[in-house]
Amino acid sequence: MKLCAVPWVTLGLSCLFLFGSCQSDLSDPRKAYPTASAVSASSKHGQSADLATLERGRKIYTTSCTECHVARTIANYSVPEWRRWIDVMAPRAHLAVNDRAALETYVIGARESLASASE
C-alpha cells in the first residue's frame, strides 16, 4: 500500500517543480502576448505596421492558433523560428494570404518588442 503512494508523490513533486520553474514576467499575458498598441509603440526606428494590422494579427494568434494547441509564449522562439512555424502552420489553419501576413507582422513585431524590452 505504501509503495503505491510513491509514484503519486513523485508525480506531485515533479509537477510542482515544473510549474514553479515556469514563473517569470512572461506569466502575465500582456507581456507574453503583447497588445497591438504595445508592439506598435515599441517598434524600432519609428517603423511599424499600422495598428489595425497588428490587432488583426494578434486576434488571429489568440483565436485561430489556439484552436488546435495552446498559444506559445512569443519570447520563447526567435524570429527565424517564428517564420518557420508560421510557414508550417498557416496552411494547416487555412489562413488567407492577408491573414497570414497580419499574423507574421504581429508575431515578429511582438518578438522584437519583447527582445528590446529585456535589453
Describe the structure.
The chain is globular, with a radius of gyration of 18 Å. The longest helix has 22 residues, at 97-118. It has one domain. Mean pLDDT is 77; it is low at 15-26. With 119 residues, it is mainly α. It is 66% helix and 0% strand.
Question: What would a concise description of this structure say?
Answer:
Helices cover 66% and strands 0% of the residues.
Layout of SSEs?
Layout: H1 2-21, H2 29-32, H3 36-41, H4 51-63, H5 79-92, H6 97-118
Helix pairs in contact: 4-6, 5-6
Highlighted features:
119 residues, mainly alpha, 6 helices
Mean pLDDT: 77
Largest sheet: none
How many E-type strands? 0
| Structural class designation | mainly alpha
Uncertain regions spanning at least 5 consecutive residues: 15-26
Helix content: 55-70%
